[in-house]
Each structure stands twice: as structure tokens, then as C-alpha cells.
């Protein structure tokens, strides 16, 4: 790799065709972000599983549509943020489930084993 002391000119793109659509943010990108945020906020209450799953599925669809649009659908940053929040929500759900299982096992081990008969029974 070589460096030059002067700025290298960037290749100019030709003028856009008049029938080309304007680049717009994908609406699914907004939905992915909103669902990911909701999943992260409700992850500890195990309610984040459904919105996180839906967000990850929508993100996959949105990426496919953005690729097929040839650059006229934007919103990749919102998709990344939404995916990260969705994964955070899933991790929080896993932490909550593991904590509940550990507490249940500890309480189960503290419970008396077998029948607890009165002292006058052989």
C-alpha cells in the first residue's frame, strides 16, 4: 500500500437517471430497532423472547430487500442497532432463566427430604 502526499481524486459517478427512485430508509429498519429496544427492556422479565425473535427475522428480510434494491433502501445503522438490542434481550432472557433455575434448585435442596412424620410415629 502506498500513500501519496496529495489527495487522490475520487471517481465521479455519472448523473442519476431521472426515473431512479430517491433513497429512503427502510421501514423494516425502524421496526427492527423498536422491537430490539422492547426486547432489551423486557429481557429480564422473559418477555423479550418474542420481540427479539421477530426483530432478528425482520432484520434478515430487510437486509435482503436492501441488497435487492441496489442501494435505494437505507437504514443499515438502524438494523445493526436493532439486532444488537435484540441479541441483548435474548441474553437477558437466558440470564433470567438460568437465575430462576438456580434459585429453584437451591430451594429444592433446602426442602426436607421424604415425609416429615410427627415424633410419636415409628
Percent in strands: under 5%
Oligomer state equals single chain
What order do the SSEs take from the amino end to the carboxyl end, as H and E? EHHEH
Report the count of strand segments. 2
Gap between N and C termini: 89 Å
Mean pLDDT: 86
Counting structural domains, the number is 1
Determine the structural class based on helices, strands and strand pairing.
mainly alpha
What's the helix count?
3
**Major sheet:** 2 strands, parallel
**Main sheet: which strands, in order across?**
1-2
Low-confidence stretches: none
Helix-residue proportion: 55-70%
Gross geometry: elongated
Radius of gyration: 27 Å
Q: How would you describe what is shown here?
A:
This is DUF4190 domain-containing protein. The protein is mostly helical. The chain has one domain (about 25-110). It is built from three helices and two strands; from the N terminus they run βααβα. The chain has helices at about 25-40, 50-70, 75-110, and strands spanning about 25, 75. A two-stranded parallel ribbon has the order 1-2. Helix 1 (about 25-40) packs antiparallel against helix 2 (about 50-70), helix 1 (about 25-40) runs parallel beside helix 3 (about 75-110) and helix 2 packs antiparallel against helix 3. The longest helix has about 35 residues, at about 75-110. The termini are far apart. The mean pLDDT is about 85.
Amino acid at each position: 500500500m502506498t500513500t501519496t502526499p496529495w489527495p487522490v481524486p475520487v471517481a465521479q459517478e455519472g448523473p442519476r437517471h431521472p426515473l431512479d427512485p430517491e433513497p429512503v430508509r427502510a421501514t423494516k429498519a425502524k421496526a427492527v430497532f423498536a422491537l430490539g429496544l422492547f426486547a432489551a427492556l423486557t429481557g429480564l422479565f422473559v418477555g423479550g423472547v418474542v420481540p427479539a425473535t421477530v426483530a432478528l427475522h425482520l432484520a434478515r428480510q430487510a437486509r435482503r430487500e436492501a441488497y435487492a434494491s441496489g442501494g435505494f433502501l437505507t437504514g443499515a445503522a438502524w438494523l445493526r442497532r436493532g439486532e444488537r438490542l435484540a441479541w441483548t434481550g435474548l441474553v437477558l432472557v437466558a440470564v433470567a432463566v438460568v437465575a430462576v433455575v438456580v434459585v429453584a434448585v437451591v430451594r429444592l435442596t433446602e426442602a426436607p427430604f421424604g415425609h416429615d412424620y410427627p415424633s410419636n410415629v415409628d
